[in-house]
UniProtKB/TrEMBL annotation:
One of its GO terms (biological process) is monosaccharide metabolic process. SUPFAM superfamilies: FucI/AraA N-terminal and middle domains. The lineage of its organism: Bacteria, Thermotogati, Deinococcota, Deinococci, Thermales. This is Fucose isomerase. InterPro entries: Fucose_isomerase_N/cen_sf (IPR009015). One of its GO terms (molecular function) is intramolecular oxidoreductase activity, interconverting aldoses and ketoses.
C-alpha cells in the first residue's frame, strides 16, 4: 500500500480559499485510495505562507511518503510551496478545477499549477481536476503503478545465489537503484538439500497434478530441489540463481521445473544469475500485479521473433496445457513445456550506468521451441511501434544482455515514468541495420 501525503496551498485573498475545497478534495482522495491501492497517510492544514510550508515539509518528510501531492486550491506564489517541491521524494502538483467559469475569478488554481511546474528543479508529475474526474484518476493510477515499481527497485532485497552462469559476463552488473543484493555460494543450496525431509518430498509427490513424461518417482529429486530452493529463498523478494552446470551435475536434475512450481507459489527466480534481470522482473511485477519472466530472443523468421526460455515460467503465463519434459540439451528431468499466452507484454531491462530499455509488444500465443515460448508478432520500444526485425536490430545495436524481462499487459507509460522517477536514461530505438554495432 503506497503512502500519499496531501498539502493544500491557498492564497487567502482568493474567494476559493474560503469554500472548504481542500476538505472536500481530501475526503474524496481518501475514498479513492481504496480503489487505487494507496493510503492517504498525511494531510496538512491549508498552507498560506512560507513558514507554514516549511512546517508542512518537515511533517511530510517524517511521514515516510511515497508521493506528496501539493494541491493548488488557489493560486499562490513560489515562496509558499517551494519548500515542498524541494523535498527528496516524488512530488505531484495538483490543481483543482474552478468552481465557476464566469464573473469574478474564484481560485486561479491552474495558473498556480503553471507557476509551480515552471519552478521545478527535478522530475515531478502534474495533475488537474477533481478526484472523481477520469483525467485525474488515469494520471494518478499511472503514477501509482510507476511508484510501486520504484519501491520494488529501491527497497527490494534479493539473493544472488552462485553468481552468474559460466561465461555470462554481462550478468556481473548490479542494480544502481538502492536494491539490496546479498551474495551466497551454492554451498548454501547443498546444505539446504541435505536438510530436506523425505516426508516433505512424499507430500509434494502425493500432491503432484501436472502432466509429465516421467513417473512421479523419477521426479522426487526435482521435488527435493524445490524444497531446498524454497528454504533458501525465504525472506527474499527474489533469487538470481546459477542453475547450471553445478545443480544438474550434483542433483541429477535440471532446476527449471522446481523454479516453475515455486513461481506458481509466488516466488521469483531469475535464471543464470541475472541480477539486473531479476530487478526488472520485480519492477514489472510491482507495476502489473502479475508474474514476470526472463526470455531469450532465440529465432527470427516470417512469424516474428521467437521468445523462449528453458522451462521455468509459472502457469499464469500458460497459453495452453503444461507438461514436464526432458531438458532439450541434457535430457534430464525436468522443464515445464508450454506456450506463452497470447496478449500484450511489457519489458524493462536495467543496464549499468543508470540506463534502461523499456519495450513491449504482442505475443501470438503460438508455441515454438520446447520450454516456454511464443512469437513476438508486434513490437514496440519506449512506446513506439517497431517491426520485429527493427526490434531485433535495436536490441543488438545497443549490445544488450540476452535476457528480456517481460511482464503481462501494456505498461510502457508506467515504466517510462518509473525510469524518470529513478533518474534512469531510457535508450531510444536504434534499428539501423547496416553499420557496426560498436559505440565509443
Amino acid at each position: 500500500m503506497l503512502r500519499i501525503g496531501l498539502v493544500p496551498i491557498v492564497r487567502p485573498l482568493f474567494r476559493g480559499a474560503r469554500f472548504g475545497l481542500e476538505r472536500a478534495s481530501a475526503q474524496a482522495l481518501q475514498s479513492l485510495g481504496g480503489e487505487l491501492g494507496f493510503e492517504l497517510a498525511y494531510v496538512s492544514g491549508p498552507v498560506a505562507d512560507a513558514a507554514q510550508a516549511e512546517a508542512a515539509a518537515r511533517a511530510a518528510w517524517a511521514a515516510n511518503l511515497d508521493l506528496l501531492l501539493v494541491e493548488h486550491v488557489t493560486f499562490a506564489t513560489g515562496d509558499v510551496f517551494l519548500p515542498l517541491l524541494e523535498l527528496p521524494l516524488p512530488v505531484g502538483l495538483w490543481a483543482l478545477p474552478e468552481v465557476w467559469d464566469t464573473g469574478p475569478l474564484p481560485q486561479n488554481a491552474v495558473c498556480g499549477l503553471n507557476l509551480g511546474v515552471s519552478l521545478l528543479g527535478k522530475p515531478a508529475k502534474w495533475f488537474y481536476g477533481a478526484p472523481e474526474d477520469s483525467w485525474f484518476r488515469e494520471r494518478l493510477g499511472l503514477t501509482l503503478a510507476a511508484l510501486r515499481g520504484v519501491k520494488a527497485l529501491r527497497q527490494g532485497r534479493v539473493l544472488w545465489l552462485g553468481g552468474p552462469a559460466p561465461g555470462f559476463f554481462a550478468f556481473d552488473a548490479l542494480p544502481e537503484t538502492g536494491m539490496r543484493v546479498e551474495r551466497a555460494g551454492l554451498e548454501v543450496l547443498w546444505e539446504a538439500l541435505d536438510r530436506v525431509r523425505e516426508s516433505d518430498v512424499d507430500a509434494l509427490a502425493a500432491a503432484f497434478d501436472e502432466l509429465a513424461e516421467y513417473p512421479v518417482e523419477v521426479l522426487r529429486p526435482a521435488f527435493r530441489l524445490e524444497l531446498a530452493l524454497a528454504e533458501v529463498a525465504r525472506g527474499y523478494d527474489g533469487v538470481a540463481l546459477r542453475e547450471w552446470p553445478e545443480i544438474p551435475d550434483r542433483a541429477g536434475v535440471m532446476a527449471y521445473s522446481a523454479m516453475a512450481r515455486l513461481a506458481d507459489a509466488g516466488h521469483t527466480f531469475a535464471p543464470e544469475g541475472d541480477v539486473l534481470g531479476l530487478a526488472g522482473q520485480l519492477a514489472l511485477q510491482a507495476v502489473s500485479g502479475k508474474p514476470a519472466i526472463l526470455l531469450d530472443v532465440s529465432h527470427f523468421g516470417a512469424k516474428g521473433l521467437m521468445l523462449w526460455h528453458g522451462g521455468e515460467a509459472p502457469r499464469a503465463w500458460a497459453g495452453g496445457p503444461t507438461r514436464l519434459i526432458p531438458h532439450f540439451n541434457r535430457g534430464l528431468p525436468a522443464v515445464r513445456d508450454m506456450p506463452l499466452k497470447a496478449g500484450p507484454i511489457s519489458g524493462l531491462r536495467l543496464l549499468p550506468g543508470r540506463r534502461a530499455v523499456v519495450h513491449g509488444g504482442h505475443l501470438s500465443g503460438e508455441k515454438g521451441y520446447d520450454g516456454d515460448s511464443s512469437w513476438l508478432v508486434a513490437a514496440s520500444w519506449a512506446g513506439e511501434p517497431l517491426e520485429p526485425r527493427q526490434f531485433l536490430a535495436s536490441w543488438l545495436n545497443h549490445r544488450l544482455p540476452h535476457h528480456l524481462a517481460v511482464g503481462m499487459g501494456e505498461h510502457q507509460p508506467a515504466l517510462m515514468e518509473l525510469c524518470a522517477w529513478l533518474g534512469l536514461e531510457v535508450l531510444p530505438a536504434d534499428p539501423e541495420e547496416n553499420r557496426l554495432v560498436w559505440r565509443a
